[in-house]
Every structure is written in C-alpha cells, then in structure tokens.
Amino acid sequence: MTDFSVEKQLVRSLYDALDHASPEQVSDVLAQFTAPDYLWRGYHPFHELTGADSVATRFWKPLKMALAHMQRRLDVFMAGTNEIDGHQTVWVVSMGHLMGLFDAPWLGIQPTGKIAMLRYCEFNRIENGRIAETAMYFDIPHLMMQAGLQPFPPQTAAHLVQPGPMPHDALMFADAPEAEGTETLRVINAMITDLGQWKGSLPLEEELRRTWAEDMIWWGPAGIGATYTIPRYAKQHSGPFRAAFADRSKTTHICRMAEGHYGGFFGWPNFTARHTGGFMGMPASETLGEFRVIDIYRRDGDKLAENWIFIDLLHFWNQLGVDILGRMAEVPRT
Questions:
Q1: How far is the C-alpha of 64 from the C-alpha of 5, rounded, in Å?
Q2: Which of 3.90.640.20, 3.90.700.10, 3.10.450.50, 3.30.70.360 is the CATH number of 178-328?
C-alpha cells in the first residue's frame, strides 16, 4: 500500500497558510513550502514562472487583492505517482474554486463588488519535502463572464458555476485503495487510446460508449460549456471540435495519475492542431495552435462518468492572433 500522507499534508499545510496570508505575506509562505528553483506553470498571461517570489508577485498577490476575503473551496484532493515517468515522482492534485468578493481589478477585468469564483485545478510535484513544480490551470474567461463580459461568441453547451463530483467523495485526505487507482488509470488510458485516433473507424457516439457512461457529464471551460449524456456531448462539443481541426499531433502529458475513483493529467502542451474554421465561432487559421489542458475524471465501474476540463483558450487564440483578454478587459459590463 503506497503512503502519500506526508505529501498530502505538505500541500494541505501550504493551502492553510496561503489561504490565511495577506497579499504581502504570500511570498514568504511560498518560500517556506517550495524548492529554491520552484517551477510554476499557469494560464495566459502568466505562462511559466520560476521561484516563490515571482509566483507571489505576478499571480497570488494581485489575485488576493482582487478577490477580497478569498477562500478555497475544494472538490477534489488526491495524490499518486506519475505514470509518465514510470511512477518515479509523487504528485498531489486539487481542484475546486477560489471564491472571494471581486472588489478590485484583475488583469484589467473590472470588479463587480459581488461574489466571484475562479475555478482551478492544480498539480504539485513533491520532492525532498518541498513542492518542486506546480501546474495551476484556471478559467479566466469564466471569471470574465461572471463580471458581465462576453469574451466569446455564444457557446454550444451550458455556462455554469460547476459543482464537484456527484458522490462528493473526492476529498481523499486519507489514501484510497491502490487497486482502485490502478483501475481508474486503466480506463483513462483506454479513453486516451480511442481519442488518439481522432477520427477512427467507429461512429463518434459508438467510440465514446467504449469508455464513457451513457449519462456522462463533461464540465467544459467557459467558451465551450458543460454538456450531459453521450449524444449531447457528441453534438455540443466533441463532434464540432473534431470537425473544426486538422493535423492534430500526438497527445503528450507531463503527469498522468489516479487515486481511488479519480484521476487526471496535464500537458504543456497536450497537443497541437490546425484550426480549419468554425470552432467557437472563430475563423480558420494556417497556424498550429497549442492546447494546454488539465482533465480530471471520475470513474464509475468500468466507465468514465464525469470529466472536468481546463483549457487555456486565451493562450490558444492568442497564438492565432486573437487577444481575447486584451480586447475584453476594458469593455463595460452588461
């Protein structure tokens, strides 16, 4: 039985200290828990940052000043070894929302004075009792929409403040049985194999039924939205997405892990593809675009039942010459 109690407690202690720290204290808190060469990866416009002070100054301090009385609302907490490096490294993963009162501008987005929730997912690599590496993906367009902005054309699926897993059993502060995580990773890998064919011999819905439950829920990012059941997922996201892209590269991940009935992965990027037109109402481009993605899954039996997706759409469209954040940040709220 693998024991991740030390790694989990390290991340929980960081969260407790960080959540209670003032903006001015964040740098010292991060320095206490992270390695000297700490690598942090975040969504556009942050990208890669190195060192606790840089992460605190660029990301955490401005965010904590914007979202007053910020609290962390966890939906998933788990740990596991990384399949990509032969299970040599340990990663602790959390997912949920950072909630606060949107009282000051952030990234040029004007405050509302109301509750706002920044949905996030974070992978932390633990080494020698410190956090050596973090991938923290967060849905900035979702926050923009809460502030009354419309950064994208009407999306194909539903815009929601997304809940956590239906069974409410994903806060694994104590370790889950190792066999359950092994099975979850097996199903995730089977799904990746099917997806990697991109446009295989099976009709899309039949392909999806190989690894997805019929009443699956796909909690997609703002700009695409959430969708429910295999037929609606095929109609409202998967089908339009596949039709709008060509020249998709192979999928690559930095970390892929699972614990209990939950698992996930991230890449930097996960894959590249060429937009042939129509996705999210945008015109075609000859430029290959990167997709930086985190996926978190819930397994039910031998099928995947829920999927939370974080896609850096701001980075993707910025590569294609569309600065969503820049053009929307100063637009008056509706």
A1: 29
A2: 3.10.450.50
Report the pLDDT value the prediction gives residue 334, as an integer from 0 to 100.
55
Q: What confidence tens digit (pLDDT) does each residue in 222-270 have?
A: 999 999 999 999 999 999 999 999 999 999 999 999 999 999 999 999 9
**What tokens appear for 88 in the block?**
């040599």
* Residue 60 CB contacts under 8 Å (≥ 6 apart), including other chains: 18, 23, 26, 30
pTM beyond 0.90: the answer is yes
> What six digits make up the tokens of 48?
């890669």
Q: What is the pLDDT of residue 327?
A: 84
Q: Which CATH number fits domain 5-146: 3.20.20.70, 3.10.450.50, 3.40.50.150, 3.40.50.11540?
A: 3.10.450.50
CA–CA distance, 238 with 197 (Å, rounded to integer): 13
Determine the pLDDT at residue 332: 58
Partners of 292 in the beta sheet?
Answer: none
User: Low-confidence residues of the chain, pLDDT below 70?
Assistant: 1, 196-200, 329-334
